[in-house]
Design goal:
heterodimer; A: 74% helix; globular; B: seven-stranded mixed sheet
Chain lengths: 288, 406
């Protein structure tokens, strides 16, 4: 039983990473109306920046903040340089462009840092024993950082004027415009936030695993699955679905086999979409 | 003297064409064309340049000794990028444009498996340094044109079993990366271990790119193994060992040396990696052939030949091929040359260490080339059996303790 709980905790950690990345994806989708395939590479940017910050300062918290800032910057830059230009075109052109943006980011990171792996040199500690349960202090910190970020994002979305504008644009861009909301500012804020959230997911993934130019890109499939499962465009849905996928994968794989982790995620996705085509939290959209 | 424009043009055209013509004519009668297809970029990049330079250096040496079977060797070099797709394009170019009669030095198993159908179709040789057991048998080796200069993953597995026995382990478990190489290692280990009457207490095959391998570890550790035998790469090994250490368990590990290398120690620190056993195939280090290769490697790369086991293999590829050409006689075709490969390298002849020595000895009878990478006795599958080094990580350093011969 304790083994089962440990797996659930481990799944929760993986799930938070997936959920954060899915949140970044869904934030951008809500307003820009396309699935940003460069989300994974925003993660990678965040991880490398955090690693540089951590090496320079020796503090993982400062490193993480550098990572967040880098993610926001990359988000804003790719909006200004690429996606703003494509506004008003069919969303498939933005999707294709985002694949290109991701490719460029990966290539640049590969050129600068090489393709070998890098790691966060954090001290490794033995787990705490709570009854028969082993809990990693590091996992706990990662979990707290993720939850704190989620709280901040939801505060911004639901308790600030900027967030209200974001939600208004996401709801109905035309109506938002006639009510006097400047979409450009909203877009900038959104890309910055999406980039920062993706970067945090990358930092957490980097701390748990290794940092390499392909790390974020390789996570993209479960991230897409979580975004769709949560009801694409729905922030809470993305996080819940990510955590759900992570936990489910971990606790089920001892029974179905470890090579089927990803397949299992898709079986869940398939079932949910068959029963509830709009995803867990989504709603049916009207035709605009 | 003044030249008209027409004369100048004609003269220029003439001088430009002349070398091309002579080279063409020369090639038809007196060159054996070889493609050097090595991982110059990508995951194999630490080895690829050295491998390619040794093919060129060995060919130069053969040509300096008067060529083989009346022909000189001509090398066309390409980069496989350690990617099957890129390697297939490069192999197509080597076969169709350069008209090579052998491709030497493919590295990753995925690359060799992808190139094999092309070389089989063209009826030419493919000499590789890959580990996947699938390269021994049809369909990859349908025509017997594949020769492998590296230990198979199966032999790696046997070496792992030898080490586990020698170190007195009783309850091994295995963890393998889900690909031909990873599973090949642990399956080879299991076969050898069970043949000695042992039992493997748990086996896990895992997918790459996971945020966590805790479920996998938990399954393995639940069986209470005293050692975990890995078929893995650097990145997944780093993550798995970090999580293993944080569980507080005290299992030992036997890991292939391409994963248990200095980068791993650097990433995890001395405490986590203490006592890890790294197993690697090694060159035929005491031999005269190795001395010849080592000198060439130092000259080309400015490093010891010990730093690149694969370069010793590509060196041997050229020498063995040239000796087989010499044995097969002038203008022999690929099939006739392939038929001589086992003869010049197999046991039973006069032992030789260099091409020149072998060429001279062939006039008096059979020879046995003892390579720089191993003694090179090809078995029925075209595979060789190198020796293995067994190293232990201790205080942040990986040091060789002993050598295992299969």
């Amino acid at each position: 039983m304790s083994g089962f709980l440990e797996l659930a905790i481990s799944g929760l950690m993986s799930g938070l990473v997936i959920g954060l990345a899915a949140l970044a994806l869904t934030l951008v989708f809500g307003v820009a109306r396309f699935a940003n395939a460069a989300t994974g590479d925003f993660m990678t940017c965040g991880a490398y920046a955090a690693l540089a910050g951590f090496t320079a300062t020796g503090s993982i918290v400062l490193g993480g903040l550098v990572g967040l800032a880098a993610g926001a910057l990359v988000g804003v830059l790719s909006y200004l340089l690429v996606f703003r230009v494509l506004e008003g075109r069919p969303s498939v052109s933005a999707l294709l462009a985002s694949i290109g943006v991701g490719f460029v980011i990966r290539a640049v990171l590969g050129l600068i840092y090489g393709h070998g792996q890098q790691v966060f040199q954090l001290p490794l500690v033995r787990p705490w024993r709570v009854y028969d349960l082993r809990i990693q202090p590091n996992d706990l910190k990662i979990g707290i950082a993720a939850l704190a970020t989620l709280a901040v994002v939801f505060l911004i979305l639901h308790a600030t004027p900027m967030g209200r504008r974001m939600r208004a644009v996401a709801d109905d861009p035309m109506l938002a415009r006639v009510s006097g909301i400047a979409p450009r500012k909203v877009m900038l804020g959104l890309w910055a936030m999406g980039g920062a959230v993706a970067a945090l997911a990358g930092v957490l993934l980097g701390i748990k695993t290794v940092v390499s130019p392909e790390m974020g890109w390789e996570m993209l499939i479960p991230v897409f699955a979580a975004a769709v499962l949560g009801g694409i465009g729905h922030p809470v849905g993305a996080v819940v679905a990510g955590v759900l996928l992570g936990v489910l994968q971990e606790i089920a794989t001892p029974y179905v086999g470890f090579t089927y982790k990803l397949a299992l995620a898709f079986v869940v996705l398939l079932i949910v979409l068959l029963v509830r085509p709009k995803g867990l939290f989504g709603r049916v959209e009207g035709v605009r | 003297m003044t030249l008209s424009r027409r004369q100048t043009l004609a003269g220029l055209a003439g001088t430009l064409l002349l070398p091309a013509l002579t080279r063409g004519a020369f090639a038809q009668t007196a060159a054996f064309r070889i493609g050097a297809l090595n991982p110059v970029t990508g995951a194999g990049a630490p080895y690829g340049s050295g491998m390619q330079k040794m093919i060129l250096a060995a060919a130069e040496m053969v040509n300096a000794a008067g060529g083989a079977g009346g022909r000189t060797l001509e090398i066309s070099a390409e980069d496989s990028q350690t990617q099957p797709q890129a390697a297939v394009l490069a192999a197509k170019k080597l076969i169709e444009v350069n008209k090579v009669q052998a491709i030497l030095g493919t590295w990753a198993s995925g690359v060799s498996l992808a190139v094999a159908p092309l070389t089989n179709d063209a009826g030419i040789l493919l000499m590789n340094t890959s580990g996947a057991p699938a390269l021994s048998v049809p369909p990859a080796n349908a025509k017997g044109l594949l020769y492998r200069f590296q230990a198979t993953n199966d032999r790696f597995g046997r070496a792992f079993a030898e080490v586990a026995k020698k170190e007195g382990f009783k309850r091994p478990a295995t963890m393998a990366f889900n690909n031909a190489s990873g599973i090949g290692n642990t399956e080879g280990f299991k076969k050898a271990w069970e043949a000695q009457g042992g039992k493997v207490v748990a086996e896990v095959v895992y997918e790459p790119n996971q945020p966590s391998y805790r479920a996998e570890l938990q399954k393995v550790l639940a069986a209470k193994p005293d050692v975990i035998v890995m078929g893995s790469y650097l990145a997944d090994t780093t993550i798995i060992l970090r999580e293993w250490f944080q569980t507080g368990e005290t299992t030992k590990f036997i890991i292939p040396a391409w994963a248990a290398n200095p980068q791993l120690v650097q990433a995890l620190g001395p405490e986590v990696t203490e006592g890890i056993i790294a197993v690697d195939s090694i060159s035929n280090e005491g031999s005269d052939a190795f001395k010849a290769y080592d000198a060439a490697y130092q000259k080309a790369m400015g490093q010891s030949g010990l730093s690149n086991v694969y370069a010793a293999m590509t060196w041997d590829m050229v020498v063995v091929l040239a000796l087989a050409m010499e044995a097969a006689g002038p203008n022999a075709d690929v099939a006739a040359i392939a038929a001589k490969l086992r003869e010049v390298a197999g046991p039973g002849g006069k032992p030789v260490s260099t091409f020149a020595e072998g060429k001279a000895a062939l006039k008096d009878g059979k020879i046995d080339y003892q390579g720089a990478s191993s003694i090179l006795d090809f078995d029925q599958y075209g595979d060789v059996t190198p020796d293995f080094s067994v190293s232990f990580a201790s205080k942040g350093k990986i040091e060789r303790k002993y050598v295992v011969k299969l």
